[in-house]
Specification:
Elements (H helix, E strand, L loop, with lengths): L1 E3 L4 E3 L12 H50 L7 E5 L3 E6 L9 E4 L4 E5 L4 E4 L10 E7 L3 E7 L5 E3 L1
Antiparallel strand pairs: 1-2, 3-4, 3-7, 4-5, 6-8, 8-9, 9-10
Length: 160
């Protein structure tokens, strides 16, 4: 920059102009970059949230099975204990069969639960904690996949 002493005016070399602020193109570029970063972050957050929902459902089902098994193994009450499994909820109950409205209900939101072979009640025998049948329980989340829990006839609970 050259300053003319007579006119005290600033003269810019090479057609340079004094710039204040940002141009419209620069602003649109920055907003576009922020939009891309926000979209990527939102997608990653949603995937993590779906995995958390599936893991939480597996943990709740595992808790229910272990609770019923522990009650049966310690001889709590005078009879067997079990877990009633429906598509979107499970119920820990006492007795040899589930009675509607009895027991401790755990709702499993945003997942579906199925068993193979198809049974609705897993009963743990008193003291031995063995079950009435071996079964594999599948917890399915339509976006983040599935988790499985197997209950063997001798009462072992295996997560997969």
């Amino acid at each position: 920059m050259i300053i003319d002493s007579k006119k005290t005016k600033k003269i810019y070399l090479n057609n340079q102009k004094k710039r204040n602020g940002f141009s419209l193109v620069e602003m649109i570029t920055v907003i576009g970059i922020f939009g891309i970063i926000a979209t990527a972050g939102f997608t990653a957050f949603k995937e993590v949230k779906n995995r958390i929902v599936l893991n939480e459902a597996q943990a709740n089902l595992l808790f229910a099975l272990e609770q019923a098994q522990n009650r049966a193994a310690t001889g709590f009450g005078t009879t067997t204990h079990g877990v009633h499994i429906e598509e979107e909820r499970i119920v820990i109950f006492e007795g040899s069969e589930y009675v509607e409205g009895a027991g401790e209900e755990i709702v499993l939101p945003n997942v579906t639960v199925s068993t193979y072979p198809v049974i609705s009640d897993i009963i743990f025998n008193r003291i031995s904690a063995s079950t009435n049948a071996s079964t594999t329980i599948t917890i399915n989340h339509n976006i983040s996949g599935e988790k499985k829990i197997t209950v063997t006839q001798d009462g072992r609970i295996i997560t997969q």
